[in-house]
Structure formats: C-alpha cells, structure tokens
Amino acid sequence: VLNQTTRLELQLLEHSLSTNKLERQISDQTNEITKLQEKNSFLEKRVLEMEDKHTLQLKSIKDEKDQLQALVARQNSIIEELEKQLVTATVNNSVLQKQQHDLMETVHNLLTMISTPNSAKNNFIAKEEQISFKDCAEAYKSGLTTSGIYTLTVPNTAQEKKAYCDMETGGGGWTVIQRREDGSVDFHRTWKEYKMGFGDPAGEYWLGNEFVSQLTNQKRYVLKIHLKDWEGNEAYSLYDHFSLANEELKYR
Question: Which of 55, 166, 187, 240 has CB 3.0 to 4.6 Å from 174, enough for a Cys bridge?
Fold first, then answer.
C-alpha cells in the first residue's frame, strides 16, 4: 500500500510540474501575443498616420494643380488680349500711314499754292466749273483734277447745286459737305437752313442735308473727316460706309 501511495504522489507531483510548465508556457505565449498586439496597434497607427499624410499630400498636389490651371487660364486670357491689342495696333498703324500719306499730299499742295502767283492761286481756290456732274468723283474721273467750285445735279431732278470739290487729297474726287476755316460763317442755323444748305462754297459753307441724303442713297459713299486746330495739329477719320437718311427719319 505504501508503494502504491508513493507512486501516486510521484504522479501527482509530475502532473503538477507539467501543469506549472504549461501555465508558464501559456503565460509566455500570452505575453508574446500581447507584445504582438501592441506592435500591431503601433503599425496600424503608423499606417493611419501615413494614410493621413498621403491624403494631405494628395490634396496639396491637387490644390497646386488647380492653381497652375488657373494661372494657365489667366495667361491664355492675357495672351488673347495682347493679340487683340496687336491687331488693333496694326490697324491703327495702317490708318496712321494713310493719314501720313494724306498729310504729305496736303503739304505738297500747300507748297504748290505758296509758289503759285496770286492770280493763279485765286483761280486754283475758287475755280468754278460750269459743267454739271453727279458728284465730285464723277468730275474727277472726267479729267478735272483742280480743286474748286463745281456744279452738281441734285439726284432725280434738274436742280443744280454748287459744291466745293477737293481734287488733291487721298486720290481726289471728294465732295465737300462742310467747310469751316476762319469762323466767317455762323453755323448756328435753323433746321430748314441745314436742310437746304448755306454759306459760300468758295469759303465756309454747309452743302445741305437734303442733297447729301439723296446723293448718298444712290450708291456707296465713303466719309472722310479732316480736322485742324489753330496750332496746325491735324486729325483724320475715315468711314467706309456713309449714307444720310431722309427728312422723315431726321437725316440720321
């Protein structure tokens, strides 16, 4: 009986030792799992931080891209505006070149007048042709190239109108609608006077709205405005299409 008891005690002791060993192993494994969980939590936190950082970087890159696109759009707009300004400058340059050419013609004509004797000069300024023409361009085409007073026929009538024709400026053949030089004629006039015309074609005058209206509705006309101040400064404006409405439409 004693031997059997001793064996049982030994077996219990062995089981106890084995159990303690297993408990230690379990404890070690538990500690290892805890460490792994902590490491995993740390790694998850790092991943989240990196994702947040990556998201911020992506947002920063997107913002920078949007800013660059906006800058490109502004630059394109500036380029388009500069191209428009270049076109305008080119057109203005062409106009200035034409004005310079006309001015040189005017200077040449003035020099010719200065070098012409007074009697011939007066004939040059106030020469009056008795042949009737539709307009000054028609007179010019007929071979009359001297500026002066010409007789024009009112369209669709047998009436005649005296007008000053500029045969030198810009190729010649210009029918002068208004001429003002020294203030000798009062231009504060009535509707009827502006309709019929007033003044003297040899000096200051207004050709007449009715005549201009009928004339400019026959075919296409070009309007040229020439201004000169008391200091000798000159300016020009040229309109490729010009016509005057009838009296019912207030000669617009």
Answer: 166
